[in-house]
Amino acid sequence: MIEALSFDFVQHALLAGILVSFAAGIIGSLIVVNRMVFLAGGIAHTSYGGIGLAVYFGLPIFLGASLFAVGAALLIAVLTMKSRHRIDTFIGLIWAVGMAIGVIFVDLTPGYNVDLMSYLFGSILAVNTQDLYFMGGLLVMILLIITFGYRNILAVSYDSEYAALRGVNVRFYYTLTLILSALTVVVAIKVVGLILVIAMLTIPVYIAEKLSGSLLSMMFISGAVATFFTLIGLWFSYTYNLTSGASIILVSAVFLGIFLLLYRRK
Amino acid sequence: MPLQHPIRKTMKTDMTVIDVEHVTFAYDKEVVLEDVNLKVQEKDFLAVIGPNGGGKSTLLKLILGINPIQQGSIKVFGKPPSKSLPYIGYVPQNTNINTDFPIKVIEVVLIGHVGGKRPLFGYGKDEIACAMGALEQVGMEAFAQSKIGALSGGQRQRVMIARALCAHPKILILDEPTSSIDITGQREIYELLKVLNKSITIIVVSHDISVILEYANKAVHVNRELSYHDISDKKKTFHTHNNKGHFCEIELLQMLGADGCGVCDTSTTSTGSMTDKTEVPEPLQTKWKENK
After folding, report:
1. What are the extents of the domains in chain B?
2. Which CATH architecture has domain A3-265?
3. Is A138 exposed, middle or buried (0-12, 13-18, 19+ CB in 10 A)?
4. 8 Å CB contact between B221 and B50
5. Which chain B residues are within 8 Å of A213, Cβ to Cβ?
6. Whole-model pTM over 0.90
7. Could you report the per-residue pLDDT of B206-265, keeping only the tens digit for each?
8. Do residues A24 and A258 lie in contact, with contact meaning Cβ atoms separated by under 8 Å?
9. What's the CA gap between A230 and A18, in Å, rounded?
């Protein structure tokens, strides 16, 4: 195990795992307290459309997926504000159409068979330096936004109607949360893949929720718990030669089970 | 029955804080409020009663500026509702939502702060001191660091009142503040409001008619139209059929909603004026008949 750390790709994988886990812990907390898990799932799958387009037009995958996911987030933001009662239908629709666009554009790309599986289930061992900059940049941006916008984000998440009465721009913060979710989902695709990302955004948060008294501590406990799961998952994946994303998620699920057993007994 | 007549524009205005004139409001095509007029005086304790769906909450939301004004005008301290938010403290109807949200009591109260200078991040010392002051006013300062979900319904309601007080409002508006609280808790909330009423105007929407009317000095019955009653002299306004000094809900509804005024179109019997049966438990009805 120790000699593995000397490989560049292992170092990249570990660094990516830590950066993405922290981002997922913080944004996952926001997603869970705002009850937007289904929305985040929709955005995650829709972003495959961006991957397909990026492959077809020869753009960087991260760029294509990010733009497409942010677009989907904005669309969902507008739709949820206009007709809240039909939102589950719209999300289901955007979810499937996004994936279909991705599959078709990959089909249309001449002489190129992209490994679909690596986007669905992650390819953390293929993280390059550019990806790391992107992940680091996102985490810094999230930390800045949380630092300066915490009280408004808290007010909107806890009671949006009251926040609006106190002069907080609820729509702005709602849209901001969706955009940050979209970007976090995109970086997490590298680590666990777009199908498994939802578990990464929710399992650590669920544990943190029980251990924390405030949204801020929930975010950081989630980040730490997610990092722990990712590192254990990666070790597991490396030792037994298993898919990394799935290993991380299963490790998380097993720890969640143990945690709940201990927590109930208490 | 010596019921004072609805007060119209002729009454002497010492200090009108809320002035609602000829307001009509409809959701889509369904008219909820029709030509509603209301003047709230400074330091009034106004009870807003009426059946479910009668437009009580809609009226509040118009005053708060949540609903747009379609017809007529509303002035709060002479300004339109959207410009008068700093003067109004609001305690919304359902405070039992989001109880598993990880938030401390003090943080909930701090949400109540409005405008003003804010520190770059976190909360200012003066803001925290102010929030603690608001918690002391409602007797919840010992719970400042507790999680909101760990409180009882009555305690949580006090925190919501503290949140509203945090902005130093001149008017406090509460929507069904005691709907999910036991009888003792209800009394405590109203006693608290009574104390607060010494310095601020209070408007309460409530189903607990018998309780609220003991504390209120004015009452309006809203069921599409609005009828106004000055009940500050309760001994004159009402006479009770029992000796407990407690008004039976039927009597009150009869006096306020039915034949008490010419504005309400519910003219026949007291029970006829109540579209919402849940407001009148069966035992009360029989009690009333016996008394009669």
Report:
1. 16-291
2. Orthogonal Bundle (1.10)
3. buried
4. yes
5. 102, 104, 145, 147
6. no
7. 877 766 777 888 888 888 888 777 777 665 555 555 444 455 555 566 666 544 444 434
8. no
9. 7
Of residues B66, B103, B122, nearest to A215 (C-beta):
B103
Residue type, A235: W
What does pLDDT average to over chain B?
75
Pairing verdict, β B71-76 and B88-91: unpaired
Q: Can you read off the two tokens belonging to residue B158?
A: 């006090």
Asked if B115 contacts B71 with a C-beta cutoff of 8 angstroms, the reply is no
Least CB-CB distance to B123: which of A147, A151, A217?
A: A151
DSSP A256: H
How far is it, in rounded angstroms, from Cα B140 to Cα B157?
10
Does the beta-carbon distance from B115 to A215 stay under 8 Å? no
**Whole-number Å distance between alpha carbons of B98 and B220:** 32
As for the ipTM of the complex, it is 0.82
Distances (CA, A) of A136 to A6, B207, B245: 21, 55, 70
Are B20 and B72 in contact by the 8 Å Cβ rule? The answer is yes
Q: Find the residue in B nearest to A146 (Cα).
A: B121
Query: Any bridge partners for residue B221, and if so which?
Result: B49, B227
Closest CA to A230 of A199, A207, A185: A199
Is A49 buried (19+), middle (13-18) or exposed (0-12) by CB count in 10 A?
buried
Percent of residues in chain A assigned helix, strand, coil, to nearest 5 = 85, 0, 15
Considering only CB atoms, A158 lies closest to which of B108, B114, B121, namely B108
Whether B110 and chain A come into contact, CB under 8 Å, resolves to yes
The angle formed by the CA atoms of residues B147, B153 and B157, to the nearest 5 degrees, is: 85
- Tell me if B103 and A154 make a contact (CB, 8 A cut-off): yes
Rounded to a whole number, what is the distance in Å from the CA of A225 to chain B's nearest CA? Answer: 17
Please name the residues in contact with B30: beta carbons below 8 A apart, sequence gap of 6 or more. none
In what side-by-side order are the strands of the sheet with B171-175?
B88-91, B171-175, B201-205, B45-49, B218-223, B225-230
Considering only the top CATH level, what class is B16-291?
alpha beta
